[in-house]
Amino acid sequence: MSTFTFKTKYDQEILLGRRAKHLSQLLDGIETVPASSIFLHTHRALQQNTMYAPEPPNDFAYWVTNRLGYERLGEELASVDIVQFRSVEALRHKFIRILRTFIGEDPHTDSCVPGHEFHFMACHTFVLPTPFTANSLAQFRECLRQVHVTTLRYHILDRTLRGDRGENDFSAWFREIGNQALADELAALDPYTQTMEGLRNRILKLVERHESD
After folding, report:
1. I need a labelling partner for 22 at 20 to 30 A (CA). Which of 33, 46, 168, 173 fits?
2. Whole-prediction pTM value?
3. What is the rounded distance in angstroms from the CA atom of residue 195 to the CA atom of residue 50?
């Protein structure tokens, strides 16, 4: 049977030296910054949050609402349902379409107060294997109980959007070992509406139930 190796990651955030003081510059930045920048600015709250459920909005929505005062646009940016996307590029184009539409309706948008510009950031991600490996659902469950939430974030969030399969690593492995039903059930979970610990417990219950099938 295929072996699953649990991994962890370390993100080094970096300033890109690019900033926006009005919507056109924000749009230009979103169109051209690296994918890791889009991921960081849409997942920052979730990446930093271990005990509580993530609270929107993303960085773009926060800046548009609180620094430019465009509440309607901010609400639209905040309402982007990230769970629907299977790649960073698809997510990027969603924000681009929203901003282009708004700017097209009113090209004379305001600038922020000096000192409150949007600073684009990105991250270098370093991925390392952990000592935890699994060759069965029982071993997977025991490992999942012990790994750090950073490992959970990496396999569920990072790999879904930044990987090459458009699917989280756990579901992909379940399919590989022939458990399509478990893979589908896990893929259907929304990781953005619960804590990482809550998600861990949901996955543990799913795995335990399929162990007994």
Report:
1. 46
2. 0.81
3. 7
Range of the domain at 36: 10-122
Query: pLDDT 10s per residue in the chain (213 long)?
Result: 699 999 999 999 999 999 999 999 999 999 999 999 999 999 876 665 444 444 456 999 999 999 999 999 999 999 998 878 889 999 999 999 999 999 999 877 789 999 999 999 999 999 999 999 999 999 999 999 999 999 999 999 899 888 778 899 999 999 999 999 999 999 999 888 888 899 999 999 999 999 876
- Whether 111 and 15 map to the same domain: the answer is yes
The three-class DSSP label of residue 170 is: helix
Contact present, 160 and 167 (Cβ < 8 Å): yes
Q: Strand, helix or coil at 67?
A: coil
| Residue labelled with tokens 């510059």 | 25
Q: Is residue 97 part of a domain?
A: yes
